[in-house]
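Table S7 (text form). Paired inputs.
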Amino acid sequence: MRPQITVGLPMFCDTKTAMRLLCLSNGHGEDGIGLRILQALQRQSDAIQLAALPIVGEGKSYQTQGIPIIGPVQTMPSGGFIYMDGRQFARDLQGGLLQLTRMQLKTIRDWVQSDGFVLAVGDIVPLLFAWWSGTNYAFVGTAKSEYYLRDEQGWLPRQSWFEQLERWSGSVYLPWERWLMKHPHCQAVFPRDRLTSMVLQKWAIPTQDLGNPMMDSLDPKGLIFSNEPDLTGDRLTFVLLPGSRLPEAYENWRIILQAVSALLMAFGNQRQLLFLGAIAPQLDPAPLKQSLESYGWRLASTTQSMVTFTQYRAQIVLTQTGFADCLHQADFSLAMAGTATEQFVGLGKPVITFAGVGPQFTFRFAEAQTRLLGPSVVLADHPSRVVQIVQSLLQDPDRLQLIQANGIKRMGSPGAADRIADYLVQRLNVKGR
């Protein structure tokens, strides 16, 4: 597959006074975070020319919002998860990874010839690309958190000596990553949480604790998913998050439906059950509907924004446009996703998750996610275990209160994109609106 090249015009035309900023990101979730910061920059200043170069994928988030992409982009077989499996890396190499990387690095060097600032979003890959540019840069660290290794009380217990070795350098960020963040050209580092910021400050890294942009743009639209009133106040609402990666999400959906069936058997005669399938726009709903029918669900209604299935007193609603509403209305999440799971936790709610077959959502990924998000996530060893977990949570209000506080602590409050943009406008000394 040949790299796709999309070149657009600058967002602002006043080239005499405009500051040029290039956003590098490496994944769908990272693209979304980068886009939120760029949109915040647009709101705060009309003196910055914005551009993007997504290192992984085609950067459709940028394209749909009019942010010009300056160089070659291409979707790789691994979808960006080569660190999960060496075979995925081999497939990416066969798919032209090295050629794409060379072209992207050359594009960045060519871009900085006219001066400019680079904003890297993600992990060491965009950070390394930013350093390679030779110009000043800032880093939004979305992939790593000290919570993977420790919490506020100290190091987390790890079973094997190899797992314990992860803490050898004193931080989840390794020495070469810290060197890139401490480089004279690095003007600011924006970690994803306060604990990580505090640890990085020990090495005099220019850390700014401004929050996590993942929690931005989650305002609900006021969608109503069920016409059945909750007359007795006993309804339980679950959001189902199978992830966005193809074709993995379809297999994740089938695993989640096993848990849904277990809940239906346990609670179907006691409570109203509402399941909200928050389906990524890039997924084809047809396989999801077929899986529902194979589990005994019957199509009840279809509207422009949602499709409703019923079984006994329960409903499953599929929507590809009501993501934030699903998160806000749900009491629990059955999740096999990355960013979406973290956002639900950030709203102070409990997640039950299950290991899949990958390449992203494997047991290794799910176990790491439980360390990242702490008591807010329970990793079940089988979908049928969901009943026991839900019953335990319902009977423990103190634990639910802990989960609520934990989500805010680990994911931060909304508004991080605006705070980061404001810092960059001040740092770049450009004119505000």
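Next pair, protein 2 of 2.
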Amino acid sequence: MLGEYLREQRERLKVNDKSYSLRQVAQRVGIKPTYLSKIEREELPPPSEATIKKLSQELDLDADILLAMAGKVSADLREIICKRPQLFAELIRQLKEVPDQAVLRVVREVTDGNW
């Protein structure tokens, strides 16, 4: 799923900019083209968080979404959750069935500081 998505996004960008070839993207990200090819074809497990973040920057994609597609959580979120595991576990479980609009409302309230 992640690999296929990365390939689709890279190929979409390559239509207008040939610098998004597999070889050139791999070089800019700091990995071998064969490794990127195997990731895109899902012949290997998802890459590290660092590589996923570099790919997200290179392809102008959201790193958290790519990490989720890889079944991973960023280190900063993991650290936040680990500081208050029961609280965040309960929050996430309660929000899992809530419509997106309600979750966005909670996020806005937290961001704005309106309690």
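The CA atoms of residues 3 and 42 lie 5 Å apart.
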